[in-house]
């Protein structure tokens, strides 16, 4: 199996450890991983701000970089959802559709494609899980509490395979952190208040780490934690699944 590794801009710039952990984890599970070196932004920030018509160059480059792969995997639910729902190219509609159908968020790829049942990971810490909105409500990698339906969580199922981890039960386990991409810029006060509420839930339950599938959400909460002088850290789920 040959997989193309898509690394979002903010992961590349601020949290390269998440990308490295994703690469190492996939290789550990027997996957051949290739990183196309000419990849850039997928265009999500522009699209989120109402300028999707300016993402044509991003779309064309994304197709050029990733059309050869059987699967595309990224450590980011929001960027994967953008590609799935919005990638388009009037000159190459079939190529765009093909890529939209074969791109996966990391935990969904591990559970749905590789069907991982066991991990050789160890992380002896108290960990709170943040279920990010794009992953949960867009990619359906976990269930929503407002629905009368069986509960499931692909990230949780993988974390439960990690030796020594103490997973916390939060009071509001699928509440939004308030990041929302450019929402945190245009609605700063609301975004910060939502983030403080989300962080407080983790702190009240004694978290040492907050993890999730989106470093963007974790980055938002990390900023709040640092301003509060908290010792609680954020960590991408790939770094836990590859730990030890």
Explain what the structure shows.
The protein is α/β, with parallel strands linked by helices. The chain contains 13 helices and eight strands. The protein is 47% helix and 11% strand. It starts with a strand and ends with a helix.
Number of E-type strands: 8
In round numbers, the mean pLDDT is 95
SS strand fraction: 5-15%
Rg from alpha-carbon coordinates: 17 Å
Protein name: L-lactate dehydrogenase complex protein LldE
GO molecular function: oxidoreductase activity
Pfam family, one: CCG
Question: Topology of this protein?
Answer:
Blueprint: E1 2-5, H1 9-14, H2 16-28, E2 32-34, H3 44-48, H4 56-66, E3 71-74, H5 77-86, H6 93-102, E4 103-105, H7 106-113, E5 126-129, H8 133-138, H9 154-159, E6 166-167, H10 183-186, H11 188-204, E7 209-212, H12 215-227, E8 233-236, H13 237-241
Parallel strand pairs: 1-2, 1-3, 3-4, 5-6, 5-7, 7-8
Domain Cysteine-rich: 3-84, 127-221
InterPro entries: Cys_rich_dom
Pfam family, one: CCG
């Amino acid at each position: 199996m040959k997989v193309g590794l898509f690394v979002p801009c903010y992961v590349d710039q601020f949290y390269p450890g998440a990308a490295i952990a994703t690469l190492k984890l996939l290789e550990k599970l027997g996957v051949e991983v290739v990183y196309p070196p000419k990849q850039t932004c997928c265009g999500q920030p522009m699209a989120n701000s109402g300028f999707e018509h300016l993402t044509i160059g991003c779309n064309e480059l994304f197709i050029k970089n990733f059309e050869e792969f059987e699967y595309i995997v990224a450590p980011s639910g929001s960027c994967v959802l953008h590609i799935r729902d919005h990638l388009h190219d009037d000159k190459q509609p079939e190529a765009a559709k093909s890529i939209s159908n074969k791109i996966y968020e990391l935990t969904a790829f591990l559970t749905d494609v590789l069907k991982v049942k066991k991990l050789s990971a160890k992380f002896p810490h108290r960990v709170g899980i943040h279920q990010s909105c794009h992953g949960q409500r867009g990619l359906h990698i976990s269930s929503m509490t407002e629905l009368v339906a069986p509960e499931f969580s692909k990230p949780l199922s993988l974390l439960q395979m990690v030796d020594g981890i103490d997973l916390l039960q939060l009071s509001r386990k699928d509440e939004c952190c308030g990041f929302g991409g450019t929402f945190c810029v245009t609605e700063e006060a609301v975004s910060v208040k939502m983030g403080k509420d989300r962080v407080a839930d983790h702190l009240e339950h004694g978290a040492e780490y907050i993890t999730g599938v989106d470093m963007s959400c974790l980055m938002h909460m990390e900023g709040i934690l640092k301003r509060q002088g908290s010792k609680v850290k954020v960590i991408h789920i790939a770094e836990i699944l590859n730990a030890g």
